[in-house]
Structures are given as C-alpha cells and as structure tokens.
Amino acid sequence: MLSKIIGQAEALAFHLEPQRAIRLLNAMPASVIETLQRVRFRQTLQLAATRSPFYREQFRRRGINPRRIDHPSQLGDFYTTGEDLRAHVEDFRIGRADTVFETTGTTSPVPKRVYFSRNEIDEMGKASALGLYFLGLRREDTVLSAIAAEKGVWPLKFLFAGGENITESARAMVQKTWQAPLYLSYGQTESFGSMGVECAKQSGYHRNDLNFVFEIADCDETGSGELVYTTLTRNVMPLIRYRSTDLTQLIDEPCECGLFARRRAKIRARTDEMVVCGMGNVGPWVFEDVLRDVNGSGAEWQAVVKHNGRRDVIELRVESENNGHEAEMERAIMGNLQDRFSDFWKNYEMKLYEFRVVPYPLGSLRNGRKLKRVVDERQMGGVVSKTVEATPTSNCQE
Q1: DSSP three-state, residue 287
Q2: One domain for residues 266 and 349
Q3: In this predicted model, what pLDDT tens digit does every residue of 227-261 receive, in sequence order?
Q4: What is the DSSP string of 144-181?
Q5: Is residue 116 within 8 Å of 237, Cβ to Cβ?
Q6: What DSSP character marks residue 267?
Q7: Rounded to an integer, what distance in angstroms lies between the CA atom of residue 161 and that of residue 128?
Q8: What percent of the chain has a predicted confidence (pLDDT) above 90?
Q9: What percent of the chain is modeled with pLDDT above 70?
Q10: Mean pLDDT of 108-131
C-alpha cells in the first residue's frame, strides 16, 4: 500500500508545473525514495526472470531465486556487461519496442543495440526536464542545438552538455569563451537519457534515483570503483547490475543546492584507461591534475605508456601554442607532479619510470569523436598506437 501511495505521489509530481514538482520531490524523505526503489527493483527482477531468456538462464546457473532478492547487491557476483548485450541482445528484450538505439562503436567495432518503448522515453524525458528547470531553463528560452562559429558569441543563460570526460581546464575555457556556466549530464546509450545532472554548484551529478539503483563495484579504500546500475522503469529491455565501465564514487552527503537527489562524483576514468606501470596505478584524473594551472597547455592531452627495454616511459602529449615556452610548461608539470602526487614522485626519483612532456600543435590530438586519454602501448607489442597520428612540435625532454 505504501509503495502504491509513493508511486502515485511521483506520478502527480511529474504532472505538476516543474517548480511545484521539485518542491514535492524535495519534501520526500530519503527513506521514501529508497522504498520506491526497492519495490520497483523487485518488479523489474520478477519481470526479467520470467520473460527474459538471458536472465532466466543466468539465474538458473547461479542458483539465484529472484523471490528472495530485495536489492541488487544481494545478487552476489552477477553482473551484466556490454559484451552480454552484443552477444545476446534479443534474449534481453522482453516487451514490444518501437524505438532502437545503437552505440557508435567507439570502444568496439560491434555496436550495442538497445530497445525502448515511447512511454519509457517519455518518462526519462520528464526526469531530464526537471533537471534542466532546476538549472534555470524556462519555456521562453531558446535551446541551441548548433552553433555557427562565424556568428560569434551572444548572451547565454548556461551551456548544457553530455561530456562526462571533459577536463576541468576545458570546461573553464568554454565558460570563459561563452561567459556562461557549463553544466554536464551523465548517461549512456544503454540507459537512454540522463542518469545524473549537475547543479549550479558543479560538484557532482545528482543521481536519477527514481529510475535507477546505483552501486559501486570493486571499490578501493576511497570508495571509488566501477559504476553499476539497475533500471527500475524499463519493461522492454531491463538492465540488471549493468557494468558501465566508468570509474567514480557515490556521494551521499547533501548538496549545498538543496536538491533532494543524492550525487555521483565526476568520472575519473574508464576501466580500459586504468594503467598499472612504474609510475603506479594511474588514470586520466592524475594527468588532469598535473596539467591544472599550467600556462601554455591547451585543453587536449593524451598520456601514452611505453617501455624502453629498461623501464616504463610515460609520454604526456599536450597541445600547446608552440610559443617558445615549452620548457617552462614542462617544469610546471613536473612541479605539479612532485607537489600533488608524492608517491608517484617517489617512484620517479627511484627511476622506476621516465616522464616526458611532448608538445603537439593545437587541434592535432583529437581525430575522432572521443579521445582515449590513457593509452598503454606496452600491450600492443611495441606497435605504435593509431590513436594519435599527429606530429609533435618539439620534444621538451632535456
């Protein structure tokens, strides 16, 4: 009975004016949201277990009784992955679909296909619309889907983008150029729509807990690990404990903005961009930090890990203006490495690895939609990576 009342309250909220809807949802205690999640999860699990050949077989093989499961964490080591979708996509589908999305194949030559109903898309759209209203978007505002460079800039209320891998230096550059804040959303093709949206504080994505349950798998001592999510309102192709391949952590502390939704931290890296080398266990966030506040460096960079026969070599490729200050830029980067990462610097002093800063011309590193930030060429048998084919402007290594 309680879950039915909560569901009716949520449905009412989404039919109200956005301002009133946000006030109503903010008034709900966290325990109410958790109850709604639990009820929706059990409904999703039963639906998948009875109608999906994939889930039915996986549960049978693992001896999982769906009737005894109340939370995704009780499923033990059961997860779903992108490879499962590629190999068994039709066995995931359990309802009538009228919309199909495919990934662009940026991480695999085989795209992932995901099915939805129009009703599911509408529900996700309502949640996203509330997030945009909270940021300040109103009915009378104009949404720009394309910017013509030759028209220059004009007054903007804010910029909204789905660029979870954008660096803070790149964000600062965009905000300075347009003289407006840039807010980010987080989502995947598999989830369809936003699973999280930043607020004006830009201190993490507010999670869409009405439509998903989020977990962190394989977390370290800081609570960071791979984001795992379970859909709660999908009847065509539900995903249970889907591994996102994105590394982050959940934030349960209230945000200063006052919104009811809890947060998730910014993506630190993808699981395929984590590298263990002589430097240590590194990912994109390390290099973002050593480049922070470095004059002369552009927004784009890429770290390549090599081996010279004696030790690992970290080659940090940085776009720069090639204005004769490359040596100064390298000194600043090495200073940041020493000041901000004492363990990595200790390994450098012990000569466990070499660190090189290699400037590249502006606009030369990104030759596709996504730039892989950390590339391990040691796994390529010494073959030169095809990720970047630009020529460096000079070598700063003394």
Answers
A1: helix
A2: no
A3: 999 999 999 999 999 999 899 999 989 999 999 89
A4: PS---GGG-----S-EEE--TT--HHHHHHHHHHHTS-
A5: yes
A6: P
A7: 12
A8: 47
A9: 85
A10: 85
Cβ atoms of 82 and 89 within 8 Å: the answer is no
Are 71 and 46 found together in one domain?
A: yes
* Domain count for the chain: 2
pLDDT classification of 393: cutoffs 50, 70, 90: very low
Beta strands 312-320; 353-361: pairing state: parallel
Residue 206 included in any domain: yes
234 with 339, same domain: the answer is no
Q: pTM of the predicted model, to two decimals?
A: 0.74
Which of the listed residues 241, 270, 299 is the one where a domain comes to its end? Answer: 270
Tell me the C-alpha distance between 353 and 303, whole Å: 14
Residues 311 and 162 in one domain: no
Same domain, 287 and 263: no
Between CA 264 and CA 208 the distance in angstroms is 10
Burial class (CB in 10 A: 0-12, 13-18, 19+), 159: middle
Q: How confident is the model at residue 383 (pLDDT cuts 50, 70, 90)?
A: very low
61/163 same-domain check: yes
Range of the domain at 362: 274-380
Helix ranges (DSSP H) in the chain: 2-13, 18-26, 30-51, 53-62, 82-92, 118-135, 168-178, 284-291, 326-340, 342-349
Closest CA to 370 of 144, 145, 111, 104: 104
> Within a domain: residue 387?
no
Sole residue written with tokens 């309250």 = 9
pLDDT digits (tens, 9 = 90+) for 262-308: 999 988 878 877 889 999 988 888 998 899 888 877 778 999 999 99
Q: Clarify whether residues 62 and 82 are in a common domain.
A: yes
Residue at 398 is within a domain: no
DSSP β-bridge partners for residue 185: 197
Which of 270, 300, 331 corresponds to the end of one domain?
270
Give domain status of residue 238, yes or no: yes
